[in-house]
User: Which sequence fits this backbone?
């Protein structure tokens, strides 16, 4: 079974070790390759996928631009407008989004409640779209703040979210039951945080979907303030597990995927 990841650039991805651990655990023969694909080669890459791959993941910068090349979309991928998993069905390529249910599975696994809760999302990129859609579908009250207000406004209008402006940010953060960083601030940079020092929820859970480093500055400060926290690894593992199940029809060994991802992270320090 040939699987892979389409993106550009691709470096230090945890997906090959996670997916190959899941294949081994399920007793399936196969491989998961990094398919570095500059934008100009996306069409040709998808033709190759159609011929020889059972499925692929899709990452930056192709999650949205891949849509016109596909033959069908799951309802989630359609609503989110982004695809992170492609499944080949015969000679048809069907786009799915497992980031959204993967995020929710990570919360469920950690016992974090969200239904009816006030969730504040920081960021308005592709990941924010998936997280916002998922939380809204699950009955959370979702608000969103982004550095570039136009982008925040467009996403809030598209998904029916509450827009938080720079003026209302402090009160929204303090009263959040769930604060989720979906910006890339903190990625490979333990010294930066998307919020000014000292600005944290009074009593909410703080989630950072950045997984490298495992403890970002935002999470460290939240822990020091005595707040419960969750890092980005659960979302990464669960989106991968759900993709694996779509490709193979087998239940993914999530613990084997966690172990493989943690071992790789330990070898590739930031
Ligand atoms: P994206 O589409 O490029 O969006 C990036 C977001 O970060 C935008 O909202 C951008 O704001 C914001 N941002 C970037 N630099 C900033 C800064 N200096 N100050 C404030 N805001 C800043 O990226 P994405 O695909 O959504 O991914 C975002 C992060 O999520 C990445 O770190 C990625 O690794 C992580 N991620 C994790 C998982 C997982 O499974 N754990 C899955 C997907 C993504 P502007 O609009 O103002 O530019």
Assistant:
């Amino acid at each position: 079974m040939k699987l892979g990841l389409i993106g550009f650039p691709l470096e230090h991805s945890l997906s090959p070790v996670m997916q190959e651990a899941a294949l081994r655990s399920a007793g399936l023969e196969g491989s998961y390759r990094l398919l570095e694909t500059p934008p100009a080669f996306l069409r040709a890459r998808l033709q190759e996928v159609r011929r020889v791959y059972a499925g692929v993941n899709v990452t930056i910068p192709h999650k949205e631009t891949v849509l016109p090349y596909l033959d069908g979309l799951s309802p989630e991928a359609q609503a989110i407008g982004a695809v992170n998993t492609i499944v080949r069905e015969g000679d048809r390529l069907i786009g799915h989004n497992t980031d959204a249910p993967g995020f929710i599975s990570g919360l469920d696994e950690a016992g974090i409640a969200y239904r009816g809760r006030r969730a504040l999302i920081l960021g308005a990129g592709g990941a924010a779209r998936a997280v916002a859609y998922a939380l809204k579908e699950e009955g959370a009250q979702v608000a969103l703040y982004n550095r570039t207000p136009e982008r925040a406004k467009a996403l809030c209008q598209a998904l029916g979210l509450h827009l938080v402006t720079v003026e209302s940010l402090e009160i929204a953060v303090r009263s959040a039951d769930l604060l989720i960083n979906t910006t890339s601030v903190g990625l490979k940079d333990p010294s930066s945080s998307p919020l000014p020092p000292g600005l944290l929820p009074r009593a909410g859970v703080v989630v950072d979907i950045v997984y490298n480093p495992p403890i970002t500055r935002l999470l460290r400060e939240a822990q020091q303030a005595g707040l419960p926290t969750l890092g980005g690894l659960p979302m990464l593992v669960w989106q991968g597990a759900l993709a694996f199940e779509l490709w193979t029809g087998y239940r993914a060994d999530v613990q084997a995927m966690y172990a493989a991802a943690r071992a790789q992270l330990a070898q590739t320090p930031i």
User: Anything to note?
Assistant: The longest helix spans residues 233-248. The CA atoms of residues 119 and 178 lie 5 Å apart. The pocket of NAP is lined by residues 60, 99, 123-128, 146-148, 151, 182-185, 187, 194, 209-211, 232, 235-236, 239 (CB under 6 Å). The domain at 113-227 is CATH 3.40.50.720 (Rossmann fold).
